[in-house]
């Protein structure tokens, strides 16, 4: 519950291409994933939120401030995205 | 928008029509760091004579200029950059350029002959590994390397270079360009790659067009004849058939039938929806060693000055450099247009005119067409 997440910015560079947010894998991370992923607005916001380490709850709070969504949706979006990032080793996780 | 002087009104109308219907986004770049090379391949499209090296060096974009160009193309929306030459690693500042571009977050591809993979280069590429590396292998022996590249010692250096590059997490591909001097090594190159480096398929280029943009190679002496080209085209497939059928395989009993393409090519460029009938200048572009923006590396006829006017200006004014004349009479209404491998770049390479005629490509196309079982057409 108190885990915090920090984007691995030495492994992924956030860029805008043709108006879209993407994360490009660089460095040794390309052995796990050699390419890029496209982020929707919510994902891009969450990624930018965790440039400094934050807990899921802190990210939810920021999301609620930025977007007109309900608490449950914010919780789901954040949990889903952070889980995906963790599985793909795109974030540092601190217990 | 930059001036559009020099184009006739029909050309302007055509260009404006294309731009109104087909979006242009500079997604994929080729950065040609140099046209110099440490090898002297007989069929090279781009290498200039060594006597020009001093002049070339004096006008090559500096590392700072390349890194700044990368910043400009990044802001314009470029996702992928191919770093190539000549031989890019020949530049003493290759590592500085590579690192400066890499840190900006592109999908980076590197083309190389793998003969100049120094410890310093490996240190840089370990920290900043290419997403893809395309390695060209010219033969399966020092003897062939001597004949093709003028440097037999390059063969062993290539093998070591490839082994070093394969320690990187990069996706690796192998290519070869087949001419008369390495035709005998066609199968041996594939065997060499499989035995030394792993289960990779070598992609063979066989249509070698005349060298372009002031390059010095005279390919007429060394490129494959249309008949040899045909044999190379089907050699892999025929080899597979032989392996499956065994001793009973008889090439004279093989028939070929053609599957009609769903998409009809229009070699006349009349009804094109892109500037040149392909992605050149639409989603792809090249920045040459001296800072010109071209649609592709081969087609030097149309260009704008990215170095001095900035990338965005150069990109926006590029379409208005393109003036398309009438197609050569021999190609107009040609029944084999859909099978012909001509494009504006190959026509330009062969004849100096993007709508010009190539006897070489035409002969191959006719031969190829003749193979097919006419009853099934």
Topology, pairings included?
The complex is a heterodimer of chains A (95) and B (377).
Chain A: E1 4-7, E2 12-17, E3 20-25, E4 36-39, H1 41-49, E5 54-55, H2 56-66, H3 71-87, E6 91-94
Helix pairs in contact in A: 2-3
Chain B: H1 9-21, E1 28-32, H2 53-59, H3 63-76, E2 80-84, H4 94-102, E3 107-112, H5 119-127, E4 132-136, H6 142-149, H7 154-165, E5 171-177, H8 186-196, E6 202-205, H9 226-245, E7 284-287, E8 292-294, E9 303-305, H10 306-309, H11 311-317, H12 344-351, H13 359-370
Helix pairs in contact in B: 3-4, 4-5, 9-13
Question: Care to describe what's here?
Answer:
The complex is a heterodimer of chains A (95) and B (377). Helices cover 39% and strands 27% of the residues of chain A. Chain A has a three-stranded antiparallel sheet with strand order 5-1-6. A three-stranded antiparallel sheet of chain A has the order 2-3-4. Chain A is of the alpha+beta class and 95 residues long. The N and C termini of chain A lie close together (9 Å). The model of chain A has no long low-confidence stretch (mean pLDDT 94). Chain B is an alpha/beta fold. Helix content of chain B is 36%, strand content 11%. Chain B has helices at 9-21, 53-59, 63-76, 94-102, 119-127, 142-149, 154-165, 186-196, 226-245, 306-309, 311-317, 344-351, 359-370, and strands at residues 28-32, 80-84, 107-112, 132-136, 171-177, 202-205, 284-287, 292-294, 303-305. Chain B has a nine-stranded mixed sheet with strand order 6-5-4-3-2-1-7-8-9. In chain B, strand 3 (107-112), helix 5 and strand 4 form a beta-alpha-beta unit. Chain B is globular, with a radius of gyration of 22 Å. Chain B starts with 8 loop residues before the first helix and ends in a 7-residue tail after the last helix. Mean pLDDT of chain B is 90; it is low at 1-5. Chain A binds chain B through residues 13-19, 22, 24-28, 30-31, 34-36, and chain B through 25, 27, 74, 77-79, 102-107, 127-129, 131-132, 169-171.
